[in-house]
Amino acid sequence: xxxxxxxxxxxxxxxxxxxxxxxxxxxxxxxxxxxxxxxxxxxxxxxxxxxxxxxxxxxxxxxxxxxxxxxxxxxxxxxxxxxxxxxxxxxxxxxxxxxxxxxxxxxxxxxxxxxxxxxxxxxxxxxxxxx
Length: 131
Known about the structure:
About 55% of the residues lie in helices and about 10% in strands. By secondary structure, it is mainly α. It has one domain: 3-Layer(aba) Sandwich (Rossmann fold). The protein has a two-stranded parallel sheet. The longest helix has 14 residues, at about 35-50.
């Protein structure tokens, strides 16, 4: 499964739906994320928990290590697929209203042919497999 920043922030900020997201994460054979998702998660966690960027970065890194997450590089193919995702599902173009980070998460999940773990209703309005 590919883990989007929205799921990482929800889990690490200890929001109400943490058990459901954490259970799905534990059940995954392999867990993937990307530098873009990590960037978004660090910034989101720092905001949500009112912590420094450095502290948030350490929390995210420790969590990803414990989850045995594989950090995949953003390849040219993923970059092209992210552009396509914006064309199909981006803000101002589709009700899913995917932003840049969302488009990269979508592209990573599609390229890896794995489901996407996320929080919200944006990705459920696309054709990506849901974790």
